[in-house]
Amino acid sequence: MSTRPVIIEAGPSLDREVGPMIRAKEVRVEAYCSTANLGAGFDVFALALNKYADQVKVQTTNTKSVRIKSLGPFGRELPRAPGKNSAGPPAQALLDKSGLNIGVEIIIEKNIPPGLGLGSSGATAAACAKAMDSLLHLNLSDDELVKTASLGEASVSGSAHTDNVGASLLGGFVIAYGKPLRTVSVKPPSKLSVVVVSPKTRTPKNKTGLARKLVPKKIETRYAVLNVGRASAIALGFAKGDIDLIGSGMEDAIAEPHRESLVPGYRAVKMAALTAHASGVAISGAGPSIVALIDKTRQDPRKIGRIMVGEFSKNNVESTFFVTSPAGGARIIRSE
User: Fold this and answer.
1) Residue 279: CB partners within 8 Å, gap ≥ 6?
2) Given CA atoms 320, 157, 148, 282 in this order, what sign does their dihedral have?
3) How many CA atoms lie within 13 A of 262 on its CB side?
4) Which alpha helices (H) appear in the chain, and where do they start and end?
5) Does this model's pTM top 0.70?
6) In the annotation, is 153 catalytic?
7) Helices 88-98 and 120-135: angle between axes, nearest 10 degrees
8) Are 273 and 178 in contact (CB under 8 A)?
9) Range 192-324 classified under CATH 3.30.70.330
10) C-alpha distances out from residue 52 to 114, 168, 325, Å
11) What is the reported pLDDT for 80?
12) Which is catalytic among the residues 208, 256, 311, 324?
């Protein structure tokens, strides 16, 4: 186990000098938020969303350590304890892999709201993994990058799940499965719109860990069969560009029945959206946000968003919504 220290602190701006460093090399990467599971694809499926994006800059230093600074709208909300920031473990692992006797400074511009179920920590980890790979010239495969980025998720939630980081790294609709890990990215249909509704509820500490504990360790065969069929429909729907087929698989028999209590009024909101002809509705990751997938050539996504917000209000829950589309993968926006 490495003993390289991880130092986390807040910083004032992305372009200010931040301590002793070697200016010969730096890489900046942008990675988008995501929605995971999509109903029946628990811990396997995710979709990158073209809404919020984190930027991560990594640069070599002579400190022989990993140093993390954070800024942006949500920078001060990031954990300060060593190893608790999702950028730290991927950076640590790739420094160790490189065998180089150097350190790195990581500056995170945190634009993705945490705690909404939109893969906030996953996007940071994904951007960091890609930036480190480029900085250190490791040339890792997609599978290796996703696996490394998932170490950041483990530091935050206790589980190295690969769905959110896979979507933020690779873009589009992502399937991440198996041991050893394999990843597949599929370009979503161009007519797909995603409505994201976020209820303003009190988020429990370690929300993701709590949501995972609610999922039973053992499930009945009939529920497994239901989810295999529905997940297959989702994957085939993305491959064929059939949004209604995707939506037909977004009814989960394993996780959502045990997690929906964390989202007051969820069932009523879901039924209202489906009645308004959304193709499919699901809790986004661990919640509390809900996503509705819509064929924008046939339905008005904003109208469905308003209907969902209205249904939440009937349960005395205030909420907001936005309409977005699928996003591409993490991209290098600066390298010098």
Assistant:
1) 243, 244, 246, 247, 248, 250, 292, 293, 294, 295
2) negative
3) 30
4) 88-98, 120-135, 142-157, 163-170, 207-214, 221-240, 243-248, 256-259, 266-275, 301-314
5) yes
6) yes
7) 20
8) no
9) no
10) 11, 11, 11
11) 62
12) 208
- What does the block give as tokens for 30? 């942008």
Residues 6 or more apart whose CB falls under 8 angstroms from that of 179 comprise none
Q: Rounded distance, CA 257 to CA 42, Å?
A: 12
Token pair 């490495």 is found at 2
Give, in order, the Cα–Cα distances in Å from 85 to each of 73, 113, 127: 16, 15, 13
Kindly report the CATH class assigned to 20-186+327-335: alpha beta
Domain ranges for the chain: 20-186+327-335, 192-324
Please list the rounded mean pLDDT of every run of 10 residues in the chain (336 residues).
42 38 73 97 97 97 89 84 83 94 94 95 97 96 98 88 97 97 98 97 71 82 96 98 98 90 92 98 95 98 98 95 98 92
Kindly name the residue from 105, 153, 251, 311 that is annotated as catalytic: 153
Amino acid identity, residue 166?
A: G
